[in-house]
Design goal:
This protein is α+β, with helices and mostly antiparallel strands. About 55% of the residues lie in helices and about 15% in strands. The chain is built from eight helices and four strands; from the N terminus they run ααααααβαββαβ. It is elongated, with a radius of gyration of 24 Å. The two termini are about 40 Å apart. α3 packs parallel to α5 and α7 packs antiparallel against α8. About 20% of the residues are buried.
Length: about 220
Amino acid sequence: MTEFIFNKTEILSGFPTALAAVGVTLLCGIICAVVYRLGADRPSKYMMITSIIMPTIVASVITMVNGSIGAGVAAAGAFSLVRFRSIPGSSRDICMLFMGMAAGLVAGMGYIGYALALTLLLGIVVAAVEMLLPGGKHRRQLRISVPEDMDYNGIFDEVLKEYTSSYRLDHVKTVRMGTMYELVYEIFMKKSASEKDMIDKLRCRNGNLTISLGMVPDTKDEL
C-alpha cells in the first residue's frame, strides 16, 4: 500500500500507465465534485464539471513540462492568465479548485497514488468540518421591517431563540425614505423548525410589515 502511494510512476512509459494516471486524476476530480456538491447551498453545474476535469488537465500539463524549464515558464504564464478571465468566487469554491489543482500537480509529477490519497484525506476533512460547524442548508438571511418609532432591541429575540440554533444581527438600515428600519439577521434554522410559524410570530411583533427569509448571498464569502 505504501509503495503505491509514495512510489513515483513514469506516466509516459506506456499507454497502460498513462491511462491509469488519467483514471486516477478523474477519480480525484469526482471526489472534489462530490465534496463540493454535499456542502453547497446552490451548486453550480459548471463548477462541478470544472472540479472533475481540472486534476486531469493540470496533471497532463505538468507531465508534458516536467524537466523543461522553458515549457514550465510558458505553462505558468498560461495559468496566470486564467485569473484575468474569471469572476470572483466564494472562498469555498476557490478551496475546491485548489484541492483539484493540488491533486493534478502531484499526479503530474508521477505520484498518482499520493494524489489519490491526498484528495481522499482532504475530502474527508472538508466534509467533517462542514458537518460539525453550523451552516449549509440551514443558514438563512432574515430581513425584518419595523416602524421608525419602534424600539427593536431584543423584541425578536424570544422568537428567534425558539426557531433558530443561533442568530446574529448583521446590520440595520433605513428604508422607504427613512420611514422604516430594516433589520438584517444571519440565522441558522433548527432542523425541525417551521419557517412559516416563525414568520407568523415575527409578524405579530413588527406590525405585520414586510419580512423576507432567504439564502445568504454567495458574494458574502468572496476572496
